Amino acid sequence: MKTETTTGTQTITRKEMIGLLNEDLAGEYQAIIAYTVYSQVLKGAAYTDIAGELELHAAEELQHAIKIAKQVDYLGGMPAVAPKPVKTSNDPVEMLRADLENERTTVGRYRERIRQAEAMGEFALSETLRGIIIQEQDHEIDLSAALGIAVPPAISPPVGDK
Ligand SMILES: [Fe+2]
Ligand SMILES: [Fe+2]
Fold this sequence. Notes:
- The chain is mostly helical.
- The protein has helices at about 15-40, 50-75, 90-120, 125-145; strands at about 5, 10.
- The chain has a two-stranded antiparallel sheet.
- Helix 1 (about 15-40) runs antiparallel to helix 3 (about 90-120), helix 2 (about 50-75) runs antiparallel to helix 4 and helix 3 runs antiparallel to helix 4 (about 125-145).
- The site of one fe (ii) ion has 7 residues, from helix 1, helix 2 and helix 4.
């Protein structure tokens, strides 16, 4: 049973939080795979710098996955093992756009997750997520710069997505 708080943030159960964090974890696995592959297959002088950045992103995404898995375990859940699907392409711009779309989705999801963690009084979780969201925003900045565009807004999860 969910209740609305005065801020409009839904209070979710521990079980619901475990389910949401496991979806976040599947997104982190997806990011590890995408950055691992894209950093190696991006070709062309114009993409040398960003290819190096993507290797660093891969390592950071692994740290995110470990942190999220730790929180799932702390909450009494079993961390997920399957990644969300990874888009493949031979086109550098398409690869960078796919990464950027995933980061936008991730930032939107973590914004909501931080609010939900705060509403539950799970402040260590919200602190962990805040640390992760700082790096996800840095990833968005790197990708946007490589694409020569302004950082687009985060994609909020659809209403009713828990
Ligand atoms: Fe991440
Ligand atoms: Fe990221």
